[in-house]
Amino acid sequence: MMFTNLSPYLSENIMRPEILYPLFADISTLKGVGERTHKLITNLINGNKLVNMLWHLPTNIIDRTYAPKLINAIPGKICTIAVKVVEHIAPKTNKQPYKVIVEDESEQLTIIFFKVYAQSIAKALPVGSTRVISGKLESYNGQLQMSHPDYIVKPDEISKVLGIETVYPLTAGITNKMMSKYMQQVICRIPKFPEWQDEKFLSKQKWGGFNEAILKVHNPKYLTELEPFAPERCRLAYDELLANQLALAIVRQKIKKQVGRSLCGDGRLRNKILDCLPFTLTQAQKNVLSEIYEDQKQPYRMLRLLQGDVGSGKTIVALLSMISVVECGAQAAIMAPTEILAKQHLETIQSLCENIGVKVALLTGKTKSKERKNIINALQNGEINIIIGTHALFQESVIFKDLAFVVVDEQHRFGVHQRLLLSEKGNKADILVMTATPIPRTLVLTAYGDMEYSKIDQVPEGRKPVDTRVIPLNKLAEVATALKRKIETGTQAYWVCPLVEESEKSDLAAAEERFVALQKIFGDKVGLVHGKMKEKDKDEVMERFKNGEIKLLVATTVIEVGVNVPQATIMIIEHAERFGLAQLHQLRGRIKRGFEASTCMLMYNYPLSETAKERLNIMRESEDGFMIAEKDLELRGGGEILGTKQSGFANFKIANMEVHKNLLHIANQDAKLILELDPKLESLRGKALRTLLYLFEKDDTVRNYRG
To answer: Rounded to whole angstroms, how far apart are CA atoms 659 and 587?
Structure first.
């Protein structure tokens, strides 16, 4: 499908469909929204349009249908009662409450006001009048009372109170009454939308239309209707997921058809590298390389995600992919998130490339000006075949003669919009994004759905499993003694602490304090790295650890994506119960770089929650990063996984991956089928789906890739 087919509709010059105009009006158009309220609501709902309010879903309900006679009323319940005002009792001191005595034909009740506004109270509850009050009924010294009723209205307004009240998430300055009033105005402005879902699918799921679902979601009658598995919420979640997957499918089709260049090396340099390797490639590596080589042959740009666990051999796959374009006379680049990791790539790649006459160079922000100038000149005239570096590679002054392939060692996660920008320096360059972070399938679909996907799910032969042990913290002294014996034999180790310094609110072991304690045992053989250190100081310590000068590295999670130190075969993680599953897995990966047997000790403190216990058991039993990532998602939910906020989940307004994961997979298949059958979105459903894309504001994503 050529994406340009959609560009007349999804372009900057064409406004959104007219049917959506009412919902994209500013919230200032609502009655009662002034300047101050506008600012508060905008911050609360993360937007200033009426459509943003639609996705601000209620979290609770208050049942005000309980309307007994006072004599029969049950204290502790919300009651809605018609009463006659008998008298007002003003307080004698500021510390006393203002009281209003009311009654029905069966009993008396005292209304309590702790903040005294005598005039407004007298106006709301004039003596002799009948009023409907609603609030929580209490019993004090055998007397019925109600503090600050939620509602005080005249009898003819009882319909405004008697019923189910919807409760929304609020912020200071916005009451639930205000939010409910504004929300009902918004709901009244929702147009009757054409159906964008398949009718048979809706019938099978027993879902109603969008309008019916949104109305019910904002006017729930039962607590079960607030749950994410409620039919109406599932319907809206599927709408959102389909908009997400359809937008990404359009982007993906666009990338597939974006003009690139066909590069097909003859294999002469790759074969020389394979002959030099002290190991043979795994079948998984061979499979991934076949996919990449096939992409490189195509006359379209490649954008592929390569996922592989720590030690699975992604770097050699990246090198062979780059050499493939070098064989064609073009250049390649690999970008790492830090200088120390860029240097690590250089060490791995340069030794192999020097033997076959391929010129490799390193360019970072710390490269000295004279050397930098020489490298830039050599890049521009084509003398350098492969450049390795950090973000410095993409500064304006860096010009390539013919950049055809970009590898991104991806720890700083790029969004959909940024990915193609990386290839702008090249001549229609292909992009390979690598990650050692195990990513759940659901996140691959939502955050990387615009990319082709490859996975190395095999480790090299001969690599021994890590002996993972779960040990209580009260055995810390014994662990330190055993570690001393191991280090005296030449072994290197990591000691991971969750915090940099002690705080009053936390009893977690601090890295600095642990470092001082361990210095007394290991002397100058122990080093310290943490996130608050300057990059230069951090790199210096890591370098000393790498060359063996430091035997024990005390660290925070900054070593989660650290350097390659095959000699480090022991890892101790304090308060392991406080870490997420995938983060523990990433940390353990630091001692899986070599072929020696290694040990990971997960030290925990009592009491352990059930979730923490399950996490530690999974770590002890499995080294499968992909399974661990899925388990992490189950245990921790979609908001935060892998130790990092993941935009692929965080951006969903309605969908909840713990509940709606199956709907995501259905939406993924539906989006593919839609574009196969109706590439221009011209059918009745296709036109309705255009409206869906705009409703969930996916037009921006699509617009960035228009042809």
So the answer is: 29
Q: What is the three-state SS of 530-552?
A: CCCCCHHHHHHHHHHHHCCCCCE
Burial of 459-477, coded b for 16+ CB within 10 Å and e otherwise, reads: bbeebeebebebeeeeebe
CA proximity to 129, closest of 102, 108, 94, 106: 102
Q: Is 93 left (phi over 0), alpha (psi -120 to 50) or beta?
A: beta
Q: What is the mean pLDDT of the chain?
A: 86
**In one letter, which amino acid is 415?**
G
Contact (CB, 8 A) for 664 and 445: yes
Which of 641-673 are b and which e, b meaning 16 or more Cβ less than 10 Å from the residue's Cβ? bbbeebebbeebbbbbbbbbbebbebbbebbee
30 CB-near residues (< 8 Å, 6+ apart): 50, 182, 185, 186
pLDDT at site 411: 53
Residue 258 burial class via C-beta count within 10 angstroms: exposed 0-12, middle 13-18, buried 19 and up: middle
Which CA distances in Å does 293 have to 425, 430, 555? Answer: 22, 11, 40
Query: Counting every residue, how long is the chain?
Result: 707
What is the C-alpha separation between 667 and 196, in angstroms, rounded?
13
Q: Are 628 and 618 in contact (CB under 8 A)?
A: yes
Rg for the chain, CA atoms, rounded: 32
Q: Are 486 and 570 in contact (CB under 8 A)?
A: yes
Which pTM value belongs to this model? 0.73
The answer to whether 682 and 230 are in contact (CB under 8 A) is: no
Q: Which residues contact 580 (CB under 8 A, 6 or more apart)?
A: 615, 632, 636, 640, 641, 642, 643
Question: Which residues, in sequence order, are bridge partners of residue 81?
Answer: 133
Quickly list DSSP for 134-154: EEE-EEETTEEEEES-SEEE-
Rounded Cα distance, 295 and 288, in Å = 11
For the segment 40-97, what is each residue's pLDDT rounded down to a tens digit?
Answer: 999 999 999 999 999 999 999 999 999 999 999 999 999 999 999 999 999 988 888 9
User: Do the bridges between strand 403-409 and strand 430-435 make them parallel or antiparallel, or are there none, so unpaired?
Assistant: parallel
The 3-class secondary structure across 300-363, one letter per residue, is: ECCEEEEEECCCCCHHHHHHHHHHHHHCCCCEEEEECCCHHHHHHHHHHHHHHHHCCCCCEEEE
Structure confidence by residue, pLDDT tens digits, 610-668: 888 999 999 999 888 888 888 887 776 543 433 334 434 447 899 988 789 899 999 99
Element (H, E) at 514: helix 511-522
- 465 contacts 685 by C-beta, under 8 angstroms: no
Q: What is the Cα–Cα distance from 492 to 54, expressed in whole angstroms?
A: 56
Provide the angle, in degrees to the nearest 10, between the axes of the packed helices 231-257 and 657-677. 50
* Sign of the dihedral defined by the CA atoms of residues 310, 311, 312, 315, in that order: positive
Q: Please say whether the beta carbons of 450 and 416 come within 8 A.
A: yes
Residue 415 · residue 441 · CB < 8 Å = no
What count of Cα atoms within 13 Å lies in the side-chain half-sphere of residue 640?
A: 7
Which residues on neighbouring strands pair with residue 431, listed in sequence order? 303, 406
Q: Flag residues of the chain having pLDDT under 50.
A: 1-14, 412, 504-508, 638-650, 704-707
CA atoms within 13 A on the CB side of 618: 26
